[in-house]
Amino acid sequence: MIADVFQPMGAKPAPDFILTLADKDITSNIRNRLISLNMVDNGGLSADQLSISLDDSDGLMVLPRRGAILELFLGWENSALIGQGKFIVDTIVHSGAPDMIMITARSIDFRGSLNESRTQSYSDATFGEIVQQISARNGLREPYLSNELAATRIPHVDQTDETDVQFLSRLALANSARVTVKYQRLQFIRPGYGRNPRGEPNPFKTLIRNDGDSHRFELKDRGSYTGVSASWLNTKQPEQANSSVQIERTNRLENASVTQHPAARPSNHATTEQQQSGSYMVGKEKQVYHIAKIFRDKETAMRAAKSLFEQLQRGIATFSITLATGQPDLFPETPIKVYGFKEAIDQQLWVVNKVSHTLSNGGFFSNLELNVYIEGIDIATKET
To answer: Residue 313's closest CA among 254, 256, 372?
Structure first.
């Protein structure tokens, strides 16, 4: 945060960065050549991307090799810089005149074993055991995931002519999770809950309207379901063959522990107005989505219904904002509280889904894409 940066009176803080190549600091070599730098953190298995444009008008720059590892730190002068991840160079472009080098690097090596198709079955295993096996065969570091997710029992799942990337993405989605690869490590989070891969809550951040250059709020009535149902076929007990489970939204937590923005004003809205705002976001009552697929057992049906339910709740509304002053400590699953917009927007708690940091001659700014924060949503389960 800019307020935390110490500067002499009257001075404006300047953006700063550190870039390493194969663990060697090359910042001083490229600082005066930097045209633009952009880092996109997607928060999922879509690879995070680092794009760098450098001035080579004197022809003295050496092209990096494909597969080289870059590590980026972003922030402000006289303040601790925040690590943004490691990236593997996969595209190099030299153009002119004037001569310029454009480098694109991604957080996942798409040439590696993660992207080799394979066929394999996993039976009577936990989610954690499957992830450990895939991490080991791809030479990755110890994975990060919550104890709850790691202990989830997977009766049977097939990986049929799929890459490990595709299979892990599908397996995570079926269990209300999302997978990414950072620092050569598989990491799993439950999107929308504002928690880190270990399952620990991330601290709230507060933004006010004056923090942003522009914003966009979009409410999606189509698909604003308040419940999801799924059915399973119990072949061992035919009398229960038509069993189904339904998950419904019953309430939303209106209050959460939020670090207040120094410029934020307390809300004067009454509780009734807060409840009306919550209803505005929820949409039609008792609008239930029925999954057409028939699942093999109750547990699988339950997980599928819960996963889809959470996806629908996150997507009820979206909010994006471009921060005039970049905040490098914002990353996917950072929970956000906003002030100074419409009541429905201010009353809703948000969570970062995607963040893009850009540094150039024009300054340092951050673009955030936010989804609905669902940690406080109460649900009821009905079985028939």
So the answer is: 372
Tokens of 64: 């990096």
- Chain center to CA of 366: 15
Residue 284's φ and ψ, nearest 5 degrees, are -70, 140
* Spatial distance between the Cα atoms of 150 and 144, rounded to a whole number of angstroms: 9
CA atoms within 13 A on the CB side of 205: 19
User: Measured between alpha carbons, how far is 188 from 177 in angstroms, rounded to an integer?
Assistant: 6
**Residue 201 identity:** P
Do residues 156 and 121 touch, judged by C-beta distance below 8 A? yes
Residue with tokens 């940066």: 5
Q: Which residues contact 297 (CB under 8 A, 6 or more apart)?
A: 155, 232, 234
Cis peptide before 150 (omega within 30 of 0): no
Residue 190 structure tokens: 């439950």
From first CA to last CA, the distance across the chain in angstroms is: 51
Phi, psi of 273 (to 5 degrees): -70, -35
Q: Token digits for 94? A: 């030299």
Going residue by residue through the chain (384 aa), what tens digit of pLDDT does each one get? 444 444 444 446 789 999 999 999 999 999 999 999 999 998 766 778 999 999 999 999 989 888 899 999 999 998 899 999 899 998 999 998 899 999 999 887 666 777 889 999 999 899 999 999 999 998 888 999 999 999 999 988 999 999 998 899 999 988 889 988 887 888 999 999 999 999 899 999 999 998 888 999 988 766 567 788 888 876 666 555 567 777 777 654 444 455 555 555 444 443 333 333 445 565 556 678 788 888 877 888 888 888 888 888 888 889 999 998 999 999 999 999 999 999 989 999 999 999 999 999 888 999 999 999 988 777 777 776
Cα distance between residue 318 and residue 72, in whole Å? 29
Beta strands in 192-333 (DSSP E): 205-208, 212-219, 227-232, 244-252, 288-295, 317-323
* Residue ranges of E strands in 65-204: 69-76, 82-95, 100-106, 117-126, 141-144, 153-163, 178-182, 185-189
The reported pTM is 0.81
Which residue type occupies 181? V
CA atoms within 13 A on the CB side of 4: 10
H or E segment to which residue 125 belongs? strand 117-126
Alpha helices in the chain (DSSP H): 27-30, 127-137, 147-150, 164-174, 271-282, 298-314, 343-347
